[in-house]
Amino acid sequence: MSFKAYIDNIKAKTGKSPEDFVQLAAEKGLLGEDVKASRILDWLQADYGLGRGHGMAVVTILRSASAPPAPAGQRLGEHFKGKKSRWQPVYEDLAKQVRAFGNDVSVGAGGTYLSLLRKGRKFGIVQVTADRIDVGIKLKDLPAGGRFEAAGGWNSMVTHRVRIVDPNQVDGDLVAHLERAYAAAGT
Fold first, then answer.
1. Which contacts (CB < 8 Å, 24+ apart) does range 64-73 have?
2. Contact call for residues 125 and 158 (beta carbons, < 8 A)
3. Mean pLDDT of all residues in 140-165
4. φ, ψ for residue 18 (rounded to 5)?
């Protein structure tokens, strides 16, 4: 089960969003690096009936909420650690091409993926694994097909997913679709 699925299940069961749990934990004094996971799990079991798996998902959220934010360069570097490092030059080439769309393009480094943004509006994402780069594109008028598969449950923030297993797959066709998504984000 994906982390997002855990969070969706927790919200369905409890009616509480991740932000709600952060606020509730803060009120109970359960935020901070020194708070043991077992205390949080006991609270979640007693008050919300959450088992260990779902409880640990909430613990992860609480840990990230209480951690100091990492500098932007460090957050970007986290996406290319270990075996993922081989994809960094491919990503940098793609990012350079995307930045050429306009001076309003930026990249936001989140915990699981990199957001491609136009004036803060997401038009694409990049997720790096050891085996490939997944590029998500937000383009509602593009029918899914071929390598532009429907994003489906992979990520609801985008409409399409392109799996890159060879650096040569970052081609003009992919960049053109990203540019269309960029243009759509400006309207």
1. 64/111, 65/22, 65/25, 65/31, 66/31, 66/32, 66/33, 67/33, 72/109
2. yes
3. 93
4. -55, -40
Q: Map tokens 């409409």 to a residue.
A: 159
74 pLDDT higher than 70 = no
Mean pLDDT of the chain: 89
pLDDT for 18 beyond 90:
no
- Give the tokens for residue 71: 């500098």
| Residue 157 tokens, joined | 């923030």
Distance CA 42, CA 49 (A): 10
φ/ψ (deg, to 5) at 14: -105, -20
Q: Where are the alpha helices (DSSP H) in the chain?
A: 3-14, 18-27, 37-48, 52-66, 72-78, 88-99, 172-185
Considering the chain, what percentage of its residues have pLDDT values greater than 90?
64
User: Each residue of 31-56: b (16+ CB within 10 Å) or e?
Assistant: beeebeeeebbebbeeebebeeebbb
User: How far is residue 177's CA from residue 14's CA, in Å, rounded to a whole number?
Assistant: 39
Residue 68 binned pLDDT confidence (cut-offs 50, 70, 90): low
Rounded to 5°, the CA angle 122-4-117 comes to: 10
